[in-house]
Write a structure and sequence with these properties.
Blueprint lengths: L9 E2 L25 E2 L4 E6 L6 E7 L2 E8 L2 E6 L28 E8 L2 E6 L3 E6 L4 E7 L6 E4 L4 E6 L2 E6 L25 E2 L10 E5 L4 E5 L18 E4 L5 E5 L5 E2 L12 E7 L14 E6 L2 E6 L1
Parallel strand pairs: 16-17
Antiparallel strand pairs: 1-2, 3-4, 4-5, 5-6, 7-8, 8-9, 9-10, 11-12, 12-13, 13-14, 15-16, 17-18, 18-19, 20-21, 21-22
Length: 309
């Protein structure tokens, strides 16, 4: 939670309600009281580690990448080093956050787990760096043309990144290129990494959200056509590519070519702006109500539509 520069910023771990709790939240018995880990920087994004037997989150803040690890009522915040940051403590378990100089080169605006040991972090200064929990080290790996607003993995090697008016896919198996020690995405001299795939028909005037489904080979993105959009986000379970266009229609893009994919979904016009899109995998437990085939959730105003292939 972050209530602004003059407010109270803190992390507050909570348990999700059970399926039979009607959405009501109850503190579990091992929480003696609500936990608040107070922070100095703003908190921009978070992502849960997808695999493992412990609670572990990656958190992007205005002062870099952190992890939040917890069990029961015991929680620890650790700051991770920036690439080439000789002053960063690689194995810090300090409760709280460290300041780090120029905020334009410290703000992490998107985080994504490539696997249970490696976190990809996108920064406002256009850098995408990888942090390895096993070694405690970080390395700059990619440089985007603009500030990074969101990153999503397609598989352990391919990464999608979005920024102002653009979306690109990168393969980290290629040698690093286009990196600058102090990138300035607003400068004419700014360089960027050559993408693996571009999406030429993706050009929203307002920075959008997106999701991907490797199972379908598609990408989905929601564009907010209002000049002053109310931001809404979803945690995506799978990864094709979908785009919600300015005329309130959903568009699909191929993860193989970056081109538009014709679909009956794209013919449907929503009466209101599309707020969020999220793919559901068919890998869930069907007996527990999971989808039998890949599906897509589309949120528009106060409703969520469920599209099934």
């Amino acid at each position: 939670m972050d209530s602004g520069p003059e407010g109270d910023s803190f992390l507050s771990p909570r348990m999700l309600p059970g399926p039979d709790d009607q959405g009501d939240y109850q503190w579990p018995s091992f929480f003696s009281h609500p936990i608040r880990i107070r922070t100095t920087p703003s908190l921009w994004c978070s992502a849960a580690c997808p695999i493992g037997d412990k609670t572990l989150f990656a958190i992007g803040t205005s002062n870099g990448l952190h992890t939040l690890e917890g069990f029961g009522s015991h929680w620890t915040v650790s700051q991770k080093p920036f690439p080439n940051d000789s002053h960063a403590r690689k194995h810090s378990s300090q409760q709280g956050f460290r300041e780090h100089g120029n905020s334009s080169h410290a703000s992490v605006s998107s985080v994504e787990w490539l696997n249970p040991d490696v976190i990809a972090s996108g920064m406002r200064n256009s850098t995408i760096f990888l942090h390895d929990l096993r070694s405690g080290g970080s390395a700059a790996r990619l440089q985007y043309p603009h500030s990074v607003t969101k990153i999503r993995k397609v598989d352990p090697y391919r990464i999608l990144a979005s920024g102002y008016n653009s979306l690109q896919m990168f393969d980290i198996r290629f040698a690093p290129n286009g990196l600058q020690r102090k990138p300035k995405p607003t400068s004419p001299s700014h360089t960027s990494t050559r993408p693996y795939i571009t999406f030429p028909d993706y050009s929203p005037e307002i920075i959008s959200d997106f999701d991907v489904s490797p199972e379908l080979g598609l990408l989905a993105s929601g564009i907010y056509p209002s000049p002053s959009p109310i931001f809404s986000c979803c945690d995506f379970l799978t990864r094709p590519f979908l785009l919600a266009s300015d005329d309130r229609k959903v568009q699909l893009f191929s993860l193989q070519t970056g081109q538009l994919v014709p679909s009956p979904i794209s013919q449907y016009q929503y009466p209101h702006a599309i707020n969020c899109v999220s793919f559901e995998s068919s890998e869930g437990d069907v007996g527990m109500g999971g989808p039998q085939t890949p599906s897509l959730l589309v949120s528009s105003k106060a409703t969520v539509d469920h599209w099934v292939w």
